[in-house]
Amino acid sequence: MTKLDTINAITRMEDRFELQALVARFARAVDTRDHEALSTVFVPDVTMEVLPDIRIDGREALAGMLRDDLIWATTMHVVSNVLPEPAGDSATIHANITAVHVSRDGAGKHFDLGARYTFTAVRAAADEPWLLSRIRIEPVWTTGDDQGMHDDR
């Protein structure tokens, strides 16, 4: 292995680590309703899709919706099997997420979700931070009352 090969291998490892950390920062910011932190992980024109019928466009709309959530008292997103696939200055990141949404209606009421997330991340240049440009959520299973999340959409 040449010195250049070693440098390229290290760069790929750094990219994968940074992309895994980006997904973790996203999940933590959602659960803590940290609008400032959410704003730092998205490009301005980010899109989030929750299949089959929810779509939210724009950093401010998405961060504001997550921050101002009036349905859930709290949430916890557990992220696993994070698989970043960088390709230059863009990347696809696959992850499994189990999310618990605790209702404001009382103790013991919650909506749980197991989903496959596909994130798209971009960066302006190699020395710039990765940012999320797209989030696609494909529910695999649910249990509990979703509190009307998919009504009238």
Provide a descriptive summary of the structure in words:
It is a single chain. This protein is α+β, with helices and mostly antiparallel strands. 30% of the residues lie in helices and 46% in strands. The protein contains three helices and six strands. The protein has helices at 3-32, 35-41, 59-67; strands spanning 42-50, 54-57, 72-87, 90-103, 110-122, 131-144. Strands 2-1-6-5-4-3 form a six-stranded mixed β-sheet. Helix 1 packs antiparallel against helix 2 (35-41) and helix 2 packs antiparallel against helix 3. It is elongated, with a radius of gyration of 17 Å.
**Number of alpha- plus pi-helical segments:** 3
Q: How do the SSEs run, as a string of H and E?
A: HHEEHEEEE
Number of strands: 6
**pLDDT below 50 for ≥5 consecutive residues: which ranges?**
none
Helix percentage: 25-40%
**How would you sum up the major sheet?**
6 strands, mixed
Derived from helix and strand composition plus strand pairing, the structural class reads alpha+beta
List the helices and strands and how they pair.
Elements: H1 3-32, H2 35-41, E1 42-50, E2 54-57, H3 59-67, E3 72-87, E4 90-103, E5 110-122, E6 131-144
Parallel strand pairs: 1-6
Antiparallel strand pairs: 1-2, 3-4, 4-5, 5-6
